[in-house]
Amino acid sequence: MISNDPVTNGYPIRFLRSGDFVLTEARYADGSRLPWHAHGHPTFLLTLAGGFRQRHRGGTLECSRNQVLYEPADTAHSTTVTGKATRMFFFEVSKETPDFLFPFGHNREIQLESGDVSRLLFLLRNELYYPDEVSDLAIRGLALELMAAVARTEASSERRAPPWFLEVKDAISTNLNLSLTEMSIIADRHPSHVARAFRRCCGCSAGEYVRKLKVGRAKTLMLTTRTPLKEIAKRLGFSDQSHFTRLFRRYTGMSPALFRQARIP
Fold first, then answer.
1. What residue numbers bound the domain in which 101 lies?
2. Is 212 in contact with 202 (CB distance < 8 Å)?
């Protein structure tokens, strides 16, 4: 049976048990570190504010505001809170839940880049804050929708990208300032064809894909070097440092300066 205790190691704000599911919202002290631990049941985690870095046996994941992480049952990991005023929403699914409700058998932690998955978790959070006599039914229905959304996301990510698209991605990795026209020349395809390929293969626009790469490169530079933020902004092709700061905050929920201060020594 699923536990009556909150899944989080933070400070629970709200907690609700509904049949096969547990819903929890928690806050975390700035800069806090959670030692190696594991959750007893499969858990979806939605970052509401701030951010964190999670280490597991296979590597490290960075999660910021509005990003979703799936954690399998009994998978060990440690967590470092990197954001300010970090809050998380947990949706825990009993291991005894019938297979039809939990159809994807991942045994590793994964980030789920899907607007549908995030939207459904926000709707589940609403049930945590505004429960009524039909909340159990609503939560079970939303859980079914969530499983379907995850299954579709995973199926979409497994679609084989055409060779020309992989060439475009390789070119972007070496030049983050390619225009859509330049990408289309590399691909020898019409720009609209390239744009549709990004939507189909990556689930986002070409511009969004490049922005995420830039933020990821910026994180790496801040964590591994002492390069000034102004120089990082210039190196990654931002028009100025304020543009860099706005975009970085949009994806991580914090400024580059705060991110660098919160890094692990």
1. 11-157
2. no
Q: What CATH number should be reported for the domain holding residue 240?
A: 1.10.10.60
- Region at 31 (left for phi over 0; alpha for psi -120 to 50; beta for the rest): left
Extract the tokens encoding 45. Answer: 């985690």
With CA atoms as reference, report the closest residue to 4 among 15, 91, 28, 14: 15
Which residue in 111, 210, 189 sits closest to 157, CA to CA?
111
Domain annotation covers residue 1: no
Instruction: Tell me the residue ranges of DSSP E strands in the chain.
Output: 11-18, 21-28, 33-37, 43-49, 51-56, 59-64, 68-71, 77-81, 86-93, 110-112
> From CA 180, how far away is CA 118, in angstroms rounded?
28
pLDDT at residue number 138: 95
In this structure, the number of other CB atoms found within 10 A of the CB of residue 125 comes to 19
CATH at 24: 2.60.120.10
Break the chain down into helix, strand, coil percent, rounded to 5: 45, 25, 35
User: Tens digit of pLDDT for each residue in 33-75?
Assistant: 888 888 888 899 999 999 898 887 666 778 888 888 888 877 7
